[in-house]
Fold each of these.
Amino acid sequence: MSYLLVLYHSRTDSVKNMAYEISDAAQHAGIDVKIRCFSDDSDDLVVTIDDLKNCAGLAFGSPTRFGMMASPAKQFWETTSDLWLAGQLIDKPAAVFTSSSSQHGGNESTLLSMALPLLHHGMLLCGVPYDVPALSATQTGGTPYGASHVSGLTNSSNLSQDEIAICQSVGNRLAKLIKQLQ
């Protein structure tokens, strides 16, 4: 069974809400989805190495922590050396998504740092192309490197319409690539 693994860490539900938008779009495009998180402080199941090994594609999300991914995400990736040695993730499409409290809170540097383990694993990293109208219109989150959310000083986990559209474009694009690669 092929599926998109939507893997995330979220403390205030912003990244979780993004994960569900990406998941919904991929499911509507005809792809099975497994949603997993990095720790047991969520209602979703905790990811296993087998979840990652057996996926057909990956959407990976983490909040911004000083311009980097959250430590539970980094700790998980440090356990994937066996998959790397065996080439288990080579040529699988992947995308990254994040959330920060401010527009200049490190979204782009976080997305770029999140891409590093995926590239080391040989995954096919896809961003958000400029044919997604919300990318040019957004006054909140969204970058060509991946979907993002800006929660503001109130730490709102409510996604803007542009952020939702960008997340959905990521889910649709991953679903399309998974189908093409199969």
Amino acid sequence: MWHPKLCFYQRLSVSLVGGFFLVIALLTTASTYLQTSIKHEGEQRLHLKLAEHLASDNPLLKTGVYDYDALKNLFHALMLLGPSFEFYFVDINGKLLTYSAKPGEVVRDSISLGPITEMIEGNASFPLYGDDPKSNDKQKIFSAAPIFNGDKLQGYLYVIVGGSQYDSIIDELQQSKGVQQFALIVFAGLLFLLFALLLLFRFFTAPLKRLSDDMDRFRNNGFDLTGSGIQLLPWRNESRNEVQRLGFAFNEMLKHIDKQWQQIKANDSQRRALLADLSHDLRTPLANLQGYVETLSLKDKQLDEKDRAHFIQICMKNLRNLKRLIDQIFELAYLESGHIKLKLETFQLAELLHDIAAKFKIKTEAKNIELAVLIDQASGFVRADIEKVERVLSNLIENAIRHTPPNGKITLEVSDKAGKLLVSVVDTGVGISSEELSHIFDARYQASNTERDATTHVGLGLAISQKLIALFDSELEVSSELGCGTKFSFCLEMIEPM
């Protein structure tokens, strides 16, 4: 298990150092084993026929062994000529009969004949190791040949290649100053390589650490970029470094999250204000309704028919205002929930506009306002939700009627705009100031010059209309001038009739 306080670079460094030394140890062991194996195989193949030549060329061995003292002297003489060899004569059971070693150096009485037999029969794979008479557990490469007395096998000439004297010299050489210096140089070079690799890892992991620090700061600040003025580090999106691109994507994600977070807070603030305003708007008709109902209840017998009818009329008016307000609240909440389903159908826009104009004819005539329909595309067909389009146009026309003085004019216009139908509601009313124009789509907002009438208005109509138009991938646009009137416009996709 990693210690929880170790950072990624530290873990990587520990893994690198551990893996580095493990690989070095494995390579050293494998290299030593391979070098020793190759060396032994080469020496054994080189001296493979040594015992056979001695057995066939020397008179003491050629005709069989009779004088072991003479044979020992022969072995001693041969060892002087070849100090790296040790000579042994063993019987057919592997017992050592005589040898070239000094008294006390040989610790075995016998050796295994298996490797000797394998070599003589020619089935050996090299290097082939046999027992070392001077050790109870070591094995060494050798050369061997059978010794016959006539046709009878008398024993074996067993020659150790690289005896104890050879090993002593090799050990001294390995402990020499030159070898130690070479080993030190190699070790220093490996350490330098390890240090260079650690620096390289540091260089590659530094951007990852910076990115991790950015994430920690963002989290510790409550996932808010503006609270304590967090400065995001610059990252390059065009870089081929994956960490740079990841950092750039992280910054973009943070900005997007922060934008959404700020929008959520703004919406929450607006919702709280809207709730407070709507509570007030609901309380007013309810209080009026309660007052008149209580009056009717308490003074029912004291009121004449005229007063009773008047009070009932006022109650009905407050009920209608209350129902209108509640309907608009639910409609706005439903639109904001995002679960609206459109009932798309193909219809002629001109026909819908004439129907809506006819619906408002009584209201416009009562206020002496002209309501005209001006259509460039008389046969223009659209595919939309006719009920929601009618709802938007009705809201806009009601606003226009309320803000247009007597003898004014309201025009429903349809024109072609880049393959779409541009629908406009134009009035000659009081207009909206440029300072207030950007706020008119906010829920509950009413312009300072809003015309008052007998009906309660809570400022939700335009907010609802804007969200309805957004369902058609369009936008409700407005242009206005104080004293000259206002124009609301939106676009619908024009299609060919079936």
Amino acid sequence: MTNSDWFGDWQLDPERTTLEFHSPTFWGLAHVKGTFTDVSGSARATEDSVTGQLQIGAASLRTGIRKRDEHLRSPDFFDVQAFPSIAVSIESAEATQPGWVSLRAQLTVKGVQRELELPTHVRADGEGALRLQTTTTLNRLHYGVDGNLFGMMGEAVNIEATAVFVRQS
């Protein structure tokens, strides 16, 4: 697949896409790991630009512990009633080395929008699909996700995303 094969309109394949987070808790002795299961999106790549968007259902977060999930969805953390979605808007991409791009994105959580630079590995994923993989670390307080019982939680949250896009006709 050449770079020109990437040009066109793309739709996110939610079945092959994963969005995970890891956050230290208990003063760094344990980690909370979770996923968001409701993800949709699209992208467009031309010779001159790359744009895209992802919508993440905030209420779809899962850690495997129901009570913890309910607390994370509460106003203490994500406040999913007031802010039902998390948005990622890709504004541009710059090739940095073979198979890698730097995505310039805007992340919106709880109505707070901040710019991100995401080093992203891009590769063909069979039958015309593209797989994009990135990892970043965010400060949850920068997005108003500030619940913290007795100071047990760190501010840093690691995000690992694998997004598979399928070409649209």
Amino acid sequence: MIDSNETIEEFLAQHASDVEEAIRKAAATEIMPRWRRLAAHEVDEKNGPHDLVTDADRKAELYLTDVLVDLLPGSVVVGEEAVHANPASYDAICGDAPVWIVDPVDGTRQFVHGDAGFCTLVALAHGGTLLASWTYAPARDQFATAQRGKGAYLDGERLFAGVPEPGRDLRVATSHPDYTTDEQKHALIGLRTEGVAPRPCGSAGLEYLAIARGESDATAFSWEAAWDHAAGLLLVEEAGGTHLTRTGEPFRITGGNDLPFTAARDAATARHVAGLLSGGA
């Protein structure tokens, strides 16, 4: 079993491209052939009409689980669909083994509707620390990667989030109301203020990519599921951004965060949005 971050770094130096190849193959064989071709029996509801799962989600996750564990012996996978089937499997994020965090189709609702705004998310973490991430939007032919301390890249080009332009409203992607508690709805109301332009989010992974590219300024998300956030959080960090909960602490993939939380292009924007969410603007 891998027992040190240094060894994982060696693994990444040798096999990061193999992970990318596996993600591309999962998309090519299990996801894209079903895009805009889904039959009714290939789509199910998990927790209501806004929480969908398809055969593409299930089969791509199974493919990635097999390949990723083979690539890194001793590692485990926490995947969205496996956790839905067995919630206790989520606890592996807090375990001793290196963990692959997988969302096979992030933005399933968009995928089902034939929209191009979906992606596959994979992150590698150890001891609660994110070490590497891969974000692949196959319908847009975009592939973003990040490694801790080594930068973020989109299709081989370095990403820099930059800072918001002075005098322009902050562009903030927010949680869908269906996924918020009454307390979280009240917190999100803090964004309805001068200088902020909140809007409903799409695929979480693509929202993080937009921040890393400097196309969006921040998020305000109210749920903790690591498969939605892990890859994007590292991408934003390595592009120069940051993330904070309402108490001013970084978001933890292991849970226990004060929600909603924000990820932003720069520290000043993160502090401002976190302050608005906590009522302390």
